[in-house]
Amino acid sequence: MNVYTGTHPYYCGIDLHARFMYLCILDCNGEIVYHKNRPCTPESFVQAIAPFQEGLVVGVECIFCWYWLADLCHREGITFILGHALYMKAIHGVKTKKHRIDPLIKDLDAQILRLAKAHDPTSMHLLKSIKGVGDVLALTMLHEIHDIGRFSSRVDFCSYARLVKGQKSSNGKNYGTTGGRIANAHLRLIGGGRGIMNTYPLIPNQWNLVLPLLRDAA
Question: Which of 12, 166, 192, 203 has most Cβ atoms within 10 angstroms of its Cβ?
Fold first, then answer.
């Protein structure tokens, strides 16, 4: 990974989209001097960075709509740094994103979690006892399964969750499978090829234990 280490009076990071861009400009002391959503036009960008243009560096993630901004910065004599999307994702956990919608999302997540725990705390606790299941997976299973008593057996549940496919057969002969896209796609993502059942080999045995408990709790 190549890291840009140049020093400048001002640093501009842009959350770039097709129609709008969110600009955040910091001075050399790390203080925010500009923080605003703007239309994605050359005129709007030049107007926004005008007071800070001398010695400014602009950084943006490598997405489909960065070309015009790179050309504009070149014409204006502004240092332009293109960040690799994969590397930026790798450091996402240690950065602070100053986007106004982030606190709203966090508050909404916390509210949903509180309501789920109040609605069915026993099932929530049982689901989180499965290795690899946290708040998000437990919430998904809790509300997509709803009442585990709907399923008369583990086989019925696996069918509903797309973990098994139906068979085409006639006169004792099998002609392949069917129904791979029927039933609940969200549970399929959790329990299927990329989900917890593949990552943690003990999960199928734990399902045998947890599902009857959920059925009793219901």
Answer: 12
Please state the pTM of the whole predicted model: 0.43
Counting every residue written for the chain, the total comes to 218
Using an 8 Å Cβ cutoff, are 132 and 199 in contact? Answer: yes
CB 14 within 8 A of CB 34: no
* Ordered domains of the chain (ranges, CATH): 10-99 (3.30.420.40), 102-217 (no CATH)
List pLDDT tens digits, range 86-130: 665 554 444 444 555 566 667 777 888 787 777 778 888 888 887
Tell me which residue of 140, 179, 183, 137 sits closest to 160, measured CA to CA. Answer: 183
Tell which residue, 129, 144, 130, 217, has the closest CA to residue 186. Answer: 144
